[in-house]
Amino acid sequence: MKKIMLVFGTRPEAIKMAPLVKAFQQKKDKFETIVCVTGQHRKMLDQVLKLFNIRPDYDLNIMRQGQDLYDITARVLTGMRGVLQEAKPDIVLVHGDTTTSTASALAAFYQQIPVGHVEAGLRTHNIYSPWPEEMNTLLKQLDTELMSAGYETTPLAEQNSRKLVLITGHRRENFGDGFIQICRAIKTLAKQYAEVDFVYPMHLNPNVRKPIHEIFGNAYLPNLFFIEPLEYLPFVYLMEKSTLVLTDSGGIQEEAPGLGKPVLVMRDTTERPEALDAGTVKLVGTDYARIVTEVSYLLDDNTYYNRMSQAVNPYGDGTASQRIVQTIEKVI
């Protein structure tokens, strides 16, 4: 029986790896499924584990107050050494572009264990945007034997019928002036569109929360809601009820179009160019004026809105996990 180890550490990784964990667990006659989490995002990771009823076999529990990329990389790399020596998997599967996945892949390589990279192939071709994720992806390409690309080319909401703009933001490259510009734009839009609700589930990172407090202080806008991070299902529910999504997230660029929601991406580049080609997302960067202008277009112009909301979603048919399992059955 072959041992399959799946490693992840953040909420986005867990959301996308959970179906794959379940798919392997359904093949108990062929695979021993081993789940290792790093705890890179402790609280938000645990929410997803609870939702999908996944009990890790190993938990590195690396998260510390004030951790930086050096800390995360070092703790994952050294923690994975002992886990891999004990578990002796036949293959290690990692996901996406996180520091957890990069360090875990490197740890497996050091022990000559094959690595499979789920959601491989996403590129901006700019190593500083997204940072450090683009370089993380490139590094994994060097030590990965099997890559699975995501596509061929590589309660508030129910209270009334008002339009709703859902906002998320957490990218490292936007810390500082980028988030200040984003917050200024949100404040202007909330004042300009009193008939529209703006909802921002705030990331726990203090680099995200600090500019929010600086820009808004004790100011009260009745249509602007800063809320604590949501668990996954409530967030998807809110996304389904929204009019449009303003985000710097990678995963939401894939999920929101499946619900028919236009996505404005607060980044200068995206590793999902097929979404741009399909017309489901549009890059707006962190420029104050551009964010205000593009959100206004979608709120005011029905033709413009329908063009984005009705564009064909380029992201798969929901059977990726089964295909990955079938591929691994053939190669190990």
TrEMBL record:
Keyword Transmembrane in the entry? The reply is no
Coiled-coil regions in this chain? none
Q: What is its EC number?
A: 5.1.3.14
Is Magnesium one of the keywords?
no
Instruction: Supply the alphabetized keyword list.
Output: Isomerase
List, alphabetically, the InterPro entries matched.
Answer: UDP_GlcNAc_Epimerase_2_dom, WecB-like
- GO-annotated molecular function: UDP-N-acetylglucosamine 2-epimerase activity
The UDP-N-acetylglucosamine 2-epimerase domain covers which part of the protein?
Answer: 26-136, 151-329
Extract the Pfam families matched here: Epimerase_2
Q: What class of enzyme is it?
A: isomerase
Q: What is this protein called?
A: UDP-N-acetylglucosamine 2-epimerase (non-hydrolyzing)
Species this chain originates from:
Parabacteroides merdae
